[in-house]
Amino acid sequence: MTCKHKTTDDCGNIIEYCGAGNFSDVFTVHEEEIDTKNLEKKGRIQYFYHSPLCELPIRDITNEQGEGYKSEPHIEIGVENYLSPCRQTNIVAFLDPHKNESYLFFVTCCRKVKSPYHGKTYIVGYMIKEKKLNINSKERAWCAVKGETHIYPFNDSIPYENIFGKRFAPLRLVNKEQTKQILDYFQEHTEIPIKDCVREVKRLESILEERIQNKIPTSDGKIPTKEKHSCNVLREESCEFKNDGCLRGIA
Asked: With a threshold of 0.70, does the pTM exceed it?
């Protein structure tokens, strides 16, 4: 896999990506099947910002932390980097067929005030790699990964330091021994039904929509616009998964 294109992701990093390289007047997605027969039981982590408004480990849709209006992981369709190419180099590397990685482990720091887990970093779930998505928009192009997704509540998640030690890194490889340790742990604990996660996503989107309609500034002092939604339908743009694959309509 050769990455020939450069852009800037939503974390402000200059990145190379493996998208089609042609910008589109509309949001388009091209799916590629991944040959999974040679994948090994290893992977890497992908950090995301937790919503302080949510008990569950859901992305910060309303920008409470001031790090932006987060759209990833896009659990309603089981995709990472769907609307925002954040930490794109990590996803490009994960999709590299020569690395033979199977699992993308989701990591976040709980920001729910008064939660017993507040301020602590956890491994809260994982994705099993199945497809590569080449995405093109009006301003840029990038790639995403799609796969079976599992999310766990903080009380059933794994403290980051239990696997990786106390030194935190938002990007980290997960070897076979660590992968087995994580998967064995989760096998003995109860995951959150994805539909329950999606209901929380929709609740946070409704809070953001209220701020948009009433012109209420968010943590950055700016009044959000519809483009800040983490849903193409709410942004009034096209979505390839609206009628096939998105759980928003049934959650």
From this structure: yes
